[in-house]
């Protein structure tokens, strides 16, 4: 028999060559990666071998109240501070800046004077490693804004889609024109056929028009008149009942305030800004000093890109914060008030008639009614609006359907016991306790 050799020898050689090439690839990759890793380690060592991730956590918890990386707040901007001062000096400054200033250190005295003699909080609990981590975070290069690679509007596929739509529209117009021409030709042909057969198509018979027949039928005229009168009265009543009802009213304010950001994303309690709602008849318009409690240190919008508010750009929100600064006379670079203020003319949204009495504290503090009951889901509103109609019927329905919360409320205990026995119910509504009497809301 003829010997033809080993049929698997070629496959074995192929696999051997593939394994050899892979081994060379990994070896070369490891050689290339090693210098990069060594360079990274050397850079970390030169920066104090700090951990930027841990440093960011410490910065946000201890430093962010007075410092930003790239803007001056109560204290100076801290990006690159490790390159401006000696590391041992920074250890002493962070742990006790006041002691360093009292010692007469020239750099400490100068820095203290440059920041309006603001005393920095001492952090004696921080170790050298903690400070190194913070300095490593402040030494990171500033992230450049990402540039979108999306095609410009009107180009690429969009332009192609527009061209195809125009083509379809042109075809439909062409089909419509063809149908019109065909109808004209058919009409002309029929007229010719009628003329050839001696039929006069222009002669009118003794037919009665629809309107003539309708006018002669007195019953139809009477029924139609009654229906028109009832329909007119219905729509007139609906129109008159909407006078003074501003549901959905959404005015543009002189300074844009997003409830979605403040009450929604940041979870600020409504009664932090509208504090008088707890103790007063009115909820009140928050003074700009309340805004400045936070915005002394928040001079620009820095929301995450994954946040739910996408109506406006970062630059728009930052410009609105600047309007606040202009109104109160705050110089963010010098971190002090200039004394030059401008009044803000807010546009009122919710406005009951003068003959209606409504007390916020009675509903908020005594009854425990949530703000969203009347004002809607304000935490989702980018622009504040009147959510409810605030009509008399709307208020009365609420009084008829809402049970009075008497648990732990001695004010209502005796009244509740007597009225519950009178009406034979376990829970009382506001209407059971006189919430629908005219004198409760009108005086």
Topology of this protein?
Blueprint: H1 9-46, H2 52-63, H3 87-95, H4 97-102, H5 106-114, H6 128-138, H7 157-196, H8 210-216, H9 218-241, H10 259-265, H11 270-273, H12 288-295, H13 314-328, E1 330-331, E2 336-337, H14 360-366, H15 371-375, H16 392-401, H17 410-423, H18 438-441
Antiparallel strand pairs: 1-2
Features:
disordered N terminus, 443 residues, 1% strand, two-stranded antiparallel sheet, mainly alpha, flat, 18 helices
Written account of the structure:
It is a single chain. With 443 residues, this protein is mainly α. Helices cover 52% and strands 1% of the residues. A hairpin with a 4-residue loop joins β1 (330-331) and β2 (336-337).
Write a short abstract of this structure:
The protein is an all-alpha fold and 443 residues long. It is built from 18 helices and two strands.
Shape: flat
The helicity comes to 40-55%
Strand percentage, roughly?
under 5%
Detail the poorly predicted runs. Answer: 1-11, 24-47, 147-162
Radius of gyration: 39 Å
- Major β-sheet, in short? 2 strands, antiparallel
């Amino acid at each position: 028999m003829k010997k033809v050799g080993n049929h698997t020898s070629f496959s074995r050689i192929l696999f051997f060559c593939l394994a050899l090439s892979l081994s060379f690839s990994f070896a070369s990759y490891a050689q290339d990666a090693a210098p990069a890793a060594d360079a990274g380690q050397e850079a970390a060592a030169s920066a104090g071998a700090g951990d930027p991730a841990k440093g960011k956590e410490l910065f946000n918890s201890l430093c962010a109240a007075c410092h930003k990386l790239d803007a001056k707040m109560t204290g100076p901007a801290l990006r690159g501070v490790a390159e401006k001062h000696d590391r041992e000096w920074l250890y002493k400054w962070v742990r006790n800046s006041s002691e360093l200033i009292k010692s007469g250190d020239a750099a400490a005295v100068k820095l203290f004077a440059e920041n309006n003699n603001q005393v920095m909080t001492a952090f004696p609990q921080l170790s050298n490693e903690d400070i190194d981590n913070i300095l490593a975070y402040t030494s990171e290069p500033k992230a450049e804004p990402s540039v979108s690679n999306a095609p410009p509007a009107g180009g690429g596929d969009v332009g192609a889609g527009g061209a195809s739509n125009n083509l379809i529209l042109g075809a439909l117009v062409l089909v419509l024109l063809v149908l019109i021409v065909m109808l004209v030709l058919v009409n002309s042909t029929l007229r010719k056929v009628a003329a050839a057969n001696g039929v006069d198509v222009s002669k009118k018979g003794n037919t009665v028009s629809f309107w003539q027949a309708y006018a002669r039928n007195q019953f139809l005229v009477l029924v139609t008149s009654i229906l028109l009168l009832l329909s007119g009265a219905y729509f007139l009543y609906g129109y008159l009942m909407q006078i003074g009802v501003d549901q959905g009213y959404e005015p543009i304010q002189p300074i844009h305030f997003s409830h979605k950001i403040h009450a929604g994303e940041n979870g600020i309690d409504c009664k932090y800004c509208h504090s008088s709602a707890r103790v007063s008849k009115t909820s009140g318009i928050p003074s700009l000093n309340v805004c400045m409690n936070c915005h002394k240190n928040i001079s620009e919008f820095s929301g995450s890109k994954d946040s739910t508010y996408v109506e406006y750009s970062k630059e728009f929100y930052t410009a609105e914060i600047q309007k606040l600064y202009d109104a109160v006379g705050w110089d963010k670079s010098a971190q002090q008030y200039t004394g030059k203020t401008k009044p803000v003319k807010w546009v009122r949204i919710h406005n009951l008639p003068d003959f209606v009495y409504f007390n916020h504290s009675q509903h908020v503090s005594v009854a425990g009614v949530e703000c969203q009951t009347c004002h809607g889901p304000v935490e989702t509103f980018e622009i504040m609006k009147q959510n409810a109609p605030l009509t008399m019927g709307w208020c009365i329905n609420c009084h008829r359907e809402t049970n009075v919360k008497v648990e732990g409320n001695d004010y209502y205990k005796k009244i509740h016991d007597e009225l519950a026995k009178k009406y034979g119910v376990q829970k009382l509504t506001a209407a059971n306790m006189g919430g629908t009497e005219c004198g409760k809301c009108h005086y």
